[in-house]
Amino acid sequence: MSPGPLSSSSFADLAAEMERETAYDALTMDVEEKPAPMSLGRLRPATAPLPAPEERPRRLFAAVRWAILAVVVAGGGAGLALERDAIVDAWPAAARLYDAVGFGVEPPGTGLEMVDNKTEFRDVEGTSMLFIDITVQNKSDRQREVPDLMASALGADGKPFQRWRMQPKARRLFPGEKTVFHSNIVEKGGQTVQIRPEFVLPN
What is the pTM of this model? Predict the structure, then answer.
């Protein structure tokens, strides 16, 4: 025997029951089964303005700064301190990073001392030449990078009239070690009374 048609009251009762079951299921649904909320980033229109170009260096600076801090914490900063001059020479902006983490960049030649200076004047086939030997020693308690020397020939008035660069025989010195800078040049522009050397970063 086939069931008869539903009366309006029976249909209303069934609809109400289905509505109650739906509401109950919604309340008892497990959190993991609920759809994840859509990220607001997905709703950003395609024409949204990109970050300003000047913000990218700041982000890079911050990222590298945290990287340096991580190295300092992990290794005590010894590697960064030893290679500080080379890093700053390759990337001048790194000087700010070293200052930020307490490893301010030291002037060229820090920890080194000129312990001997010999200058000799020679006449070579009618040409006046200068022969200079400068000995530098590491007076600090750690290994040091040896920079170049910029030598200036001073006249009787105390003013430089000739300058030239000198390179060391050794680029690194352990505590107490020495190295020698040697050069021989033709004297030009005056008569040398004094040689004034100063440390400068290598080219």
Answer: 0.51
